[in-house]
Design a protein that fits this description.
Blueprint: E1 2-3, H1 6-9, H2 12-23, E2 29-30, H3 33-43
Parallel strand pairs: 1-2
Amino acid sequence: MGALDACVLIPAGLRDLLLSCANEAVFRPVWQDEILDEVRRELDPSPGGAVIW
């Protein structure tokens, strides 16, 4: 089991790698609603939302 924080869920390449490993049962990811809320805020394209380059 491994906790995934927002800092590893925001970069697309790292997120894809970790979730692909989880899909292959390398580990079981866990996170809290607060972490997913942070990811949503950071990826929000609306005015005031973060811009991901």
